[in-house]
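Protocol step 4 of 6.
Sequence for 40S ribosomal protein S30 (Eschrichtius robustus) entered exactly as in the expression construct, tag removed. Do not edit the line below.
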Amino acid sequence: MEGLIPEDQIRLLQDEATLGQCGVEAVSTLSTLEVASRMFGGKVHGSLTRARKVRGQIPKVAKQEKKKMGRAKKRMKYNQCFVNVVPASGKKKGPNANS
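Step 5 output, structure tokens:
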């Protein structure tokens, strides 16, 4: 509970007793206390039986083609540089040439 002074951080136990009254030794300011409690509120997204219904309502989007990786990328680069070379007039063009 950050941002609260220690006096405001006192929480009562189920029988409205504090830890000091229960015989717990003095807790220092740097102690860590693990607390398990129930939170108020309901479910966030409903039951799992409705999941199929929600999935069916979402429109299907076609998968996009990804860049090639690994062996396929090296093969494509080899073909681009050595196999599919069209002889240009005079000067050799660089790999980033647009024309």
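Step 6, annotate. The mean pLDDT is 73.
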